[in-house]
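Why should sequence recovery work at all? Because a backbone constrains its sequence more than one might expect. Tight turns favour small or flexible residues, buried strands favour hydrophobic ones, and helices have their own preferences. The token representation captures these environments compactly. In the example below, the structure is given first.
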């Protein structure tokens, strides 16, 4: 059976893994993540922030470079003066 809700499955997996890291203790989990009582989205954001701070998540990089590098290339292309103008 295919998973039609793969993102929901992954969200539940992330929450479950964090709960297991807390020793499966409701008290510890609630102390570390009070966002549980607000919404799932806020809880996932808090878990993501914690994982980023601990270096557990590696940010993905674009094959086209950083936004600054892309902007620089676009600027260079627009100012390159290739001489290709449309004559009317």
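From this structural description, the recovered sequence reads:
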């Amino acid at each position: 059976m295919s998973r039609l809700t793969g993102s929901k499955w992954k969200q539940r997996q992330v929450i479950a893994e964090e709960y297991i890291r807390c020793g499966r203790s409701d008290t510890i989990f609630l102390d570390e993540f009070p966002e549980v009582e607000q919404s799932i989205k806020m809880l996932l954001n808090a878990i993501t922030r914690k994982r980023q701070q601990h270096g557990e998540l590696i940010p993905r990089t674009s094959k086209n470079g950083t936004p600054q590098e892309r902007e620089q290339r676009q600027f260079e292309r627009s100012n390159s003066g290739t001489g290709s103008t449309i004559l009317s």
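A few observations help interpret the result. The mean pLDDT is 87.
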